[in-house]
Write a structure and sequence with these properties.
This protein is an alpha/beta fold and 380 residues long. The relative contact order is 0.14. It has 12 helices and 10 strands. The longest helix is centred in the last third of the chain and has 23 residues, at 320-342. It is 37% helix and 18% strand. A hairpin with a 5-residue loop joins strand 3 and strand 4. Helix 1 (22-33) packs across helix 2, helix 3 packs across helix 10 (320-342) and helix 7 (250-268) runs antiparallel to helix 10 (320-342).
């Protein structure tokens, strides 16, 4: 039987008795004492996820939706409130830590959850969003790789997963963000297993990428937005990574991305550049962002968080707070837009873009068979 705590309050001539479960109290205390301005090991993140769920049962639940190559759990937190009209809810996806060395990304996913948990009861707009939408947050997809980066200084900048080398090679791992079924293997990848952009044996060959594709694929008709968090470069990237393909709702994706970048700049003056990967970074294929748009999720973005090169993937802990504050503002800007568009609070002009998006499906399906030459660039 679960232990409970009784708190007695005397208000005027009344005696009030508040009874709470000890697990709820412990969960709340643990998440309040958690240091969101530090980088945390995978074991600490797993415990934090358990505490957040235990301390906020009306808002947070969890699910294991896959396993890594080394058989570790890939776990998400679902943030959502009961819909007052019992309507089917829409979905927003967010993942972090697909590239092991980008520690600021998992730090942001934790920060994002913390901000939602701490503000939804006093923020009516956020409460409305959470009644209509479930937000799925995976703090770390590449669990094996992330754990490997914590081993010692020599492994700190490891990027890929930890799958075993193919025959004849001694090099471990696959770039999971080149392994999704989106123009796989056509541009901006390597078939050399020793390369940081090795795309694997085939699309979805890696269990981590397959887990996301399987889980999100089943929710595609309900999913409004797909956000994947990386570093570095201070960019908001939209589909597609292939230089000869454009998303059917490209103009709207740019507009929504620029609005998010404007909100981000308001906090600490940091500029975030918005565009497709070939426009502002380099061409690539097999990314989760492109896969999400190709299967029909209308809004799909990659956030490349701080900085622009001084520290790159070794962002100091003193920058976690400002980096996460601005990223939260950008993510919330996009989430609010897609929610309001779906639930009819944007101008009518916005509705026509959805029609354009739907009519563009034939073009995006066709795009999966295009092949062009290899492009190499700076890795994010």
């Amino acid at each position: 039987m679960e232990k409970k705590t009784r708190t007695f309050w005397i208000v005027g001539s009344f005696l009030l008795i508040l009874e709470t479960s000890n697990s709820l109290v412990e969960g709340l205390e643990s998440t309040r004492s958690y240091d969101y301005t530090k980088y945390h090991s995978m074991d600490e993140i797993y415990r934090w996820m358990e505490d957040v769920e235990r301390g906020n049962p009306e808002l947070v639940s969890s699910a294991i939706y896959g396993h890594t190559y080394e058989e570790r759990n890939i776990t998400l937190l679902k943030l959502g409130l009961q819909n007052p009209e019992s309507r089917e809810k829409k979905v927003i996806w967010m993942d972090c830590g697909i590239h092991a060395r980008e520690w600021i990304a998992p730090a942001f996913c934790q920060w994002f959850v913390k901000e939602i948990v701490n503000s939804y009861k006093t923020n009516k707009k956020l409460e409305q969003i959470l009644q209509n939408v479930d937000i799925y947050v995976t703090p770390v997809i590449n669990v094996d790789g992330y754990i490997f980066t914590w081993a010692n200084d020599s492994t700190r900048l490891w990027r890929k997963s930890r799958s075993t080398p193919p025959p004849g090679s001694g090099c471990y791992g696959v770039d999971l963000n080149r392994n999704f079924n989106a123009n796989w293997g056509t541009v901006g990848v390597s078939f050399d297993s020793c390369s940081n952009t090795y795309c694997g044996k085939s699309a979805g060959s890696e269990p981590e990428a397959k887990a996301v594709m399987d889980f999100v694929g089943k929710l595609v008709n309900r999913t409004l937005c797909f956000l994947t968090i990386h570093s570095a470069g201070q960019l908001i990237l939209l589909p597609y990574g292939h230089p000869e393909i454009s998303a059917p709702n490209y103009n709207e994706l740019v507009s929504v991305g620029k609005a998010a970048a404007a909100e981000m700049k308001k906090l600490h003056g940091m500029n975030y550049t918005v565009g497709t990967s070939p426009q502002i970074l380099y061409a690539n294929s097999g990314s989760s962002r492109d896969w999400a748009r190709l299967i029909g999720i209308p809004f799909s973005y990659t956030f490349e968080l701080r900085d622009k090169g001084e520290f790159s993937h070794l962002l100091p802990e003193e920058q976690i707070k400002p980096a996460c504050e601005e990223a939260f503002a950008g993510a919330l800007s996009i989430i609010t837009y897609v929610h309001d568009k779906t639930y009819g609070t944007l101008p009518n002009a916005a509705v026509t873009t959805m029609t354009t998006t739907i009519s563009g499906v034939a073009m995006t399906i066709w795009s999966t068979v295009m092949v062009v030459s290899l492009t190499i660039g700076v890795l994010m």
